[in-house]
Amino acid sequence: MSTWRVGWLIARKDLRIEWRSRVITNQVLPFAFVTMVIFGIALDANTDVLELVAPGLVWLATMFSLLLLVQRAFSVEADDGALDAMRVAGVDARGIFLGKAIGLVVQLLVLEVLLLCAAMVLYGETIRLDGVVLLVTTMVSATCGLAAVGTLYGGLAAGSKGRETLLPLLTLPAVAPVLIGATRAVESALGTGVAELSEGWQWVSLLTVFAVVFGVGGALAFGPLIDE
Amino acid sequence: MTTLDPKPTDTPSDGGTVTPSRSTGTNATRVIGIAAAVAMAWLVLFALVISPADVNQGESVRLLYIHVPTIWVAYLSFVVTAVASGIYLFTKKHSLGWDRLAGASAEFGVAFVGLTLIVGSLWGRLTWGVFWQWDARLTTTALLFVAYIGYLAVRRLGGSHQQRAKRSAVVGLLSVLLIPLVHWSVVIWRSLHQTASIANTEGDIKMDGTMLFTLFVGVVAFSLLYVWLVMHRTRAMAMEDMLEDRGLDVALAERRAEGAGR
Lengths: 228, 262
Fold this sequence. Notes:
The complex is a heterodimer of chains A (228) and B (262).
Chain A: H1 3-21, H2 23-42, H3 47-79, H4 82-88, H5 93-122, H6 132-157, H7 163-174, H8 176-190, H9 200-226
Helix pairs in contact in A: 1-5, 2-3, 2-5, 3-5, 3-6, 3-8, 5-6, 5-9, 6-7, 6-8, 6-9, 8-9
Chain B: H1 27-50, H2 64-90, H3 96-127, H4 136-155, H5 161-193, H6 209-261
Helix pairs in contact in B: 1-6, 2-3, 2-5, 2-6, 3-4, 3-5, 3-6, 4-5
């Protein structure tokens, strides 16, 4: 079985589990929503400020949710020793990495769209038509990077003691470039503050390089990392 | 119940050449240790007594004689960690010696970055009037600090020595990949959005000859200190590993003796 085929099967399986268990809709989405609300409270519900910082808050909420999604994605595997079983069965580690990452990308994209809608409602953010291409490109490239980092460190921490606390410690510094890049690019796309549309594209290149580096590095490193 | 003597376990399973000595000191570390102590005394003399106060910064310039050498040593130690991780991962032997070197080096790297950040923020308060500036270099350094704390946490995840080594080597190499990415992102971020800095981080200081020499002494002193610390720490780690292995062997022998006695 080719790597891509394995990846596709694992992604489909993960998404089906998530679809049936409803953990995302019942827990992760409400969590992300609550995060958006408490950001508003922390910033004193000042709509001028909120509109200005909305892109950053959307990405921050995405990253916190990423931590939950990654833990969820790997507890599904680690609980029954499925990860080890797949390795023993000779399943390609790169395929597992790919599948897990694709599953995360799909879930994160859905989450981001909903968070963006929440930002429009709660923070008074508006989307302009000429920025849509930049917005979508940014979301896709940033999400690929986030998913790659999350899968990599999630696999590393899976099954070990203290993983709940280790995952954020490893993931958040690593995704800091994504937070910076994606926030600025979305600011440009939405025209928040004084951001211009053309400025956004240099951030997309950063996000793409990040996604490629961690995608390739993660796929290569995943095998040694999960082998016990 | 008798405990079998685990005699052949003095040589660790990785085949590294670790002498079963109780001390981590050798002649080499003693010489380096004395040299480091002398250099430190030299640094104190130059930094506090001989070198003049700066025209603009006044006495606070003396903080830089710690700040600059510590960040230099921190970067050096992260490079050593990356190189040692790479050698561990890509050589056939997978020698745990390289893994321990990577770990020891990262520990001191984190300690020295921490020192750099503390001293730097004190200096910033005196010179710029603020403890922290969201300047590109500062932000990168802070993220680096946290990333390597994560690396040290990975080392403590447990499992066999080889497992620890493999995991941490991968994370050590990835953390190095991260440095240029973080730096790149932070540099464009700040260059786009920062209107005016409170003070220039570099440049406007015209270096006096004595000051430059003091900095040089600082770099030498802290580099020697680093080498001395890493040598001791690497050996202490080898002993820790040996102790764990021996504990396991003793436990195995006990179980075997139990089974035989039944």
